[in-house]
Amino acid sequence: MTQISAAKPNMDGNGMISSDDERKPWLTALETRVAQVEPNLSANRQALIREILDHADETYFLSSRALAKKYDLDPTTIVRTVQALGYKRYGEFAAELRSHFVARITPYALMKSAVRDKRSVVHHIEHTVEMDIQNLNALRSQLDVSRVLEIVKRIDRARRIMVVGIDFASSLSNLLAYGLVSIGYDAEAPAGSAGNLQQKILLLGPKDLLIAISFGRCLQDTVDSVIRAHDNGVPTIGLTDSEKSPIARFSDTFWLTSIASTSFHGSYVAVVSAINALLVACSQLHPQRSLKVLRRKEQEFRSRWYTPLSGKSGKRNSDRYE
After folding, report:
1. Measured over all CA atoms, what is the biggest interatomic distance in the chain, rounded to whole angstroms?
2. What are 20-51's pLDDT values in tens digits?
3. Whole-model pTM?
4. Could you give the CA distance from residue 263 to residue 270 in angstroms, rounded to a whole number?
5. Which of 6, 14, 28, 37 has the fewest CB neighbours in a 10 Å radius?
6. Distance between CA atoms of 129 and 282, rounded to whole angstroms?
7. Rounded to an integer, what distance in angstroms lies between the CA atom of residue 86 and that of residue 40?
8. Which of 106, 130, 154 is the last residue of a domain?
9. How many angstroms separate the first and last alpha carbons of the chain?
10. Does residue 174 contact residue 187 with C-beta atoms inside 8 Å?
11. Residue 61 sits in which domain range?
12. Would 124 be classed as within a structural domain?
């Protein structure tokens, strides 16, 4: 899988994302396969498959025998049902079931899965850090610097930059937007209601840029932002974790960063690293401009830094820092 890719949303005759594509639900590979063969399955097999998928947090880790025991069936029934879906072996089905579980996972399901493992708190701490390191290593091993530079140049060409991230991603959007402002870019991470967000997007044009950050199934408001921006001719970039996610599907370009974790909120270490790389690259495109902005900021905001109290007067001793 390429880490940075150019997406090509389906267009209608006017260059807008087609309404059929916009309404098309995002399906996992397993859901897609089930949808294709379901009309040819018996009612009992359809019900069994739906039960397995709807409770993936309880089934993705089970062997064929354990799955058969859970539903009080003969193991051969499970194997034949899997074969009816087009899989040669149960292991192939189990791998896609796990991917389905990860893609459809919710904070509750993640926490429930972690609690079921009955591991110690120490184990969870160590495993969380290990997952963070794995995500960083994946980012590093798949890094395509030339494609990162393409994103950076697209940011540099933009008149205005809007970064959209909601819930846990809001801290990521604020980090990217604030960092860009710090080196002279006109960037913003809108806060407030969905209505406020959509109104701001209507003010963007082809010379601007929208960067959307969302993962997994992706939040509706974030996806809607990409679609509306694209329909208005605004270039779009997505930061997401799967080339099949709605953000990747509708963005002009996307950068994949894994947030895989046993934590209920995901691991954003690799995403922060990607944002850091973007900020460093942007600052180095025009180093003198960056220095000028940072120098002015340092002079204007010098008083914001902590200075110890001076003696009994209670006044801050700022002279020593001049």
Report:
1. 86
2. 555 556 678 899 899 999 999 999 999 999 99
3. 0.73
4. 15
5. 14
6. 29
7. 12
8. 130
9. 52
10. no
11. 29-130
12. yes
